[in-house]
Design a protein that fits this description.
The structure is a homodimer. The first copy, chain A, is mainly alpha-helical. Among the domains of chain A are: about 100 residues; about 160 residues, no CATH class. A 3-stranded mixed β-sheet of chain A has the order 1-3-2. In chain A, helix 2 crosses helix 4. Chain A is globular and about 65 Å long. The first copy, chain A, starts with a helix and ends in a 9-residue tail after the last helix. Chains A and B meet through helix 2 and helix 3 of A and helix 2 and helix 3 of B. Chains A, B: Its EC number is 3.4.17.19. Chains A, B: It is an enzyme of class 3 (hydrolase). Chains A, B: Its cofactor is Zn(2+).
């Protein structure tokens, strides 16, 4: 009955309006939940959790019901037969995709995964504390089984890991991701070997010392000022795990301060600026529709890493920023821009922990996780084999072997959430950052002089024009191709790190010189 | 069809569960909206408004749809024929009431009122700025008409003002409110006359001077510490118009600081503490149902005013608190508790502005608004007559005549929101505060010594036991009767102010001595 109604209305202009109204309601519920999560991480009193959990669960179930309601399917079906404008078609495409995925998985399975993941978290935490993988293993096995079942509901004909990967990165196919990661492994293993063999001595202690938290916060504001963050649409706070969230009207940044790690708070703030700056570049008039929402995880991460690494870890940035930092911290008076640059780019020898990794070795941490979780989900690896395989790969790729599982396969939270397929988007983000930065420089000329002057407008204008303003209008491969003239490729990243680290560590066969 | 289904299920225990699930969802959406409003007032960046407005509007319409859905009516009908526990009956009673009201008003009228009020606000603001009542008058007339129509939908047989009043105070009938306000007018007009004729000179300049904002904030935290505010479930921030909001798990306070008004920030903080403290006393296990939600505006205001006036403006409080205040502000060293007490209780001569009024004259401001809006809504007064009637009443009740409408009938925001019937809850709150405080002292003995020692636990325990823990379990008259053994009465308030101000101003025929 309702179906006929929707199809009868298909020729009316108002079918799209009714569809868009539903879409914006769903987005607004999601954005409200985003504020509640920000609040929970940043300002909520400790004992607020039970109420907050209920509020978020209610919003999540309302959003799910609005999306998976029969009426959504009817409106989609009616519109897909219609002659729509390009932008409308993009909105329909995006909603169709999530509609199909959410309606294909039984709610009981979604709830079982959610409940299992809730219970998995304390088990993982305890296992890590006690270095006891066996304590976590049965839960991990259950999660892998459930997520495989989940993938099977969505697409029984596809490789289950590919289906899970598409939850995080819907439009980059798994083969592309595999090819990129394979390339990173091939290029980075020998490059890191060369770095580790190098006799070059970098000024790694340029930021040694203790730095007052309040002054670090003032400096984090200086960083954001300097990069052009729009305070009328944002704010800076602290959170235990820094993140950015919000919409084009209100995109907030969080960071954290460690008195012995000034450099960490600066680079983390720049990273989160990159995320927020993408959000702020989404078009106002697309608010609460896919046209005003960010493309997926890899593109988001490309923005944070472009700013963190290509800008924030560049030599001209430190020529610009060191005088500003010295005003907050006079003890940096004798540090030179070159020393700051070297300190910001040192490659560590004992690479066991992903979140402490440098820009170069980071990706081998990702490759290892990617290979293991892919094999786990696809049934080519048993959970019980994970610790040994993990340690073997660390030895092979990074030349270090974890002595405990706590600093081995238990170090990351992701699997305890049932997040299989997430990790690779970090590396894809770095690869895309390099590709976009190269394209921007090819268009507008090198940015080094501008960065040295603290001028970021032209770089940002290029990103606005080629990435941000499009929201989800184009699928990711099209967005990348339009912005850079190429498909996703690791070439630019490889060239970037070979040049940068070749110079820094004076490596034969590498370097820009 | 669905109706039969619900009624068939009435004998199942799960009808109530399904009903409660719906009720908690509605509450959780409302509580989420509460967080979004707190965020908007306290931390949201300036340009976040367009997105926030959409988010709040979406949550409000979802909440309305959940409440007014056929299924809600079916569940209510099924449960009302059922044999329910007392607490369940109370939940059904509360939901029935809002269901009946919200379903009786056409959504188009609700939207028209909302749109008219949105447009009214800038008109009122401009009218006040230009002292031009005529600029606001047509909009005010439209709002009065629309709200009369609204009332007529809810109950065509009742006096429309009584219907509107019940939006804010559902269980105290309008006759009771009128009787209380009439009594206040009769008692306070001569008392204020006597105060104004008094030769007593109070130490009104005890808190004269400039007080640093940061130190005021530290002192506001001292106030909250001293009163026993639970920081694990709350926080203090600043907002342009101080308010409290939240749930029993997370009840937050805001205040504001004016360097020339230290006393104002202290009393405002205590006032908001009273609201939050009520919320924190609601039972955890009633969260997201009427059993864990506060009774209505008058009861809420009774809590803020009990703490602000009966505690915070008492002499023993200043004996306790002045030494604490001196630690933040050594310049208060020579101020005595009596001087502080007098400064906190001075009665002003030129009483034109409600929000600047003292504890005594305040209620005549309310009586005037109550009389005028009642006559407006019931058709006994034309909008064009409001300014003259307003000014005449000020002259008659308070002995002052506004020279402009800006400081006369244009001073309050409420009518521009279409809020007719709200004002009286402020005075009912004060009256109830006095009644509750007297009952608490009758039960537990005078609290003066405890307050002097900074001990508030026993007073708070009495409030928890007799007011807070009940949530909405009892209708307001029953709650009052159970707590105090009497119906709502102004007797205790009259006795309290007669005694206090009689002593302070040395008035013949008044005073406790």
């Amino acid at each position: 009955m309702a179906t006929d109604q929707a199809q009868d209305d298909a020729s009316d202009g108002d079918t799209y309006d009714r569809f868009e109204d539903r879409v914006t309601r769903i987005s607004n519920v999601g954005n409200a939940a985003g504020i509640l999560r920000w609040d929970q991480e940043v300002v909520m009193p400790d004992e607020g959790t039970p109420a907050r959990a209920q509020q978020l669960s209610t919003l999540s179930s309302i959003s799910h019901e609005l999306l998976t309601a029969d009426e959504t399917g009817e409106l989609l079906a009616a519109l897909e037969g219609d002659d729509l404008a390009d932008e409308e078609e993009a909105v329909v495409r995006e909603v169709r995709r999530t509609y199909d995925r959410e309606t294909s998985v039984p709610q009981s399975l979604v709830e079982e995964i959610s409940a299992t993941a809730s219970n998995a978290h304390p088990k993982w935490k305890q296992a890590r504390e006690n270095d006891d993988f066996g304590h976590f293993a049965p839960t991990l096995e259950k999660l892998v089984d459930l997520k495989r079942e989940y993938a099977n509901h969505i697409d029984p004909d596809d490789d289950p890991y590919a289906v899970l990967f598409a939850d995080y990165e819907p439009y980059i196919d798994l083969e592309t991701a595999e090819r990129v990661l394979e390339r990173l492994r091939e290029e980075l293993v020998p490059l890191i070997d060369a770095v580790q063999d190098s006799d070059a001595e970098l000024a790694t202690d340029a930021f040694a010392g203790q730095f007052d938290d309040d002054d670090q916060e003032a400096l984090a504001r200086d960083v954001l000022d300097s990069l052009g963050y729009d305070w009328e649409r944002g704010r800076l706070d602290t959170a235990p795990h820094p993140f950015s969230s919000g919409t084009q009207f209100d995109a907030r940044v969080t960071t954290r301060f460690d008195e012995s790690d000034l450099l960490g708070s600066i680079t983390s703030t720049i990273h989160e600026f990159g995320h927020a700056n993408y959000t702020l570049g989404l078009p106002d008039d697309g608010y609460a529709t896919p046209l005003g929402e960010a493309r997926d995880l890899s593109v988001h991460e490309s923005q944070s890493r472009l700013w963190e690494n290509h800008v924030g870890r560049s030599r001209p940035f430190w020529e610009h920023f060191l005088p500003i930092a010295r005003e907050r911290f006079p003890e940096l008076e004798d540090v030179t821009p070159t020393e700051a640059y070297e300190a910001a780019n040192q490659v560590y020898d004992d690479n066991l922990i992903r979140v402490e990794a440098d820009e170069l070795t980071y990706h081998l941490h990702i490759v290892i996780r990617f290979e293991i979780e892919r094999d786990l989900v696809n049934g080519n690896l048993e959970v019980s084999e994970v610790p040994d395989v993990w340690n073997d790969k660390y030895e092979e790729y990074l030349g270090v072997r974890p002595e405990t599982d706590a600093e081995g396969c238990l170090q990351d939270i992701h699997w305890s959430h049932g997040d299989f397929g997430y990790f690779s988007t970090y590396s894809l983000g770095s690869v895309l950052a390099a590709q976009l930065y190269a394209a921007a420089e090819a268009d507008r000329g090198p940015f080094d002089d501008a960065i040295r002057e603290g001028e970021f407008d032209e770089l940002n204008a290029w990103l606005r024009e080629n990435v941000h303003q499009h929201g989800k209008r184009y699928v990711t491969p099209d967005l990348i191709e339009r912005a850079t003239g190429e498909d996703l490729t690791a070439d630019h990243f490889v060239e970037y790190v070979s040049g940068k680290y070749g110079d820094l560590y004076d490596l034969e066969g590498y370097g820009r010189r």
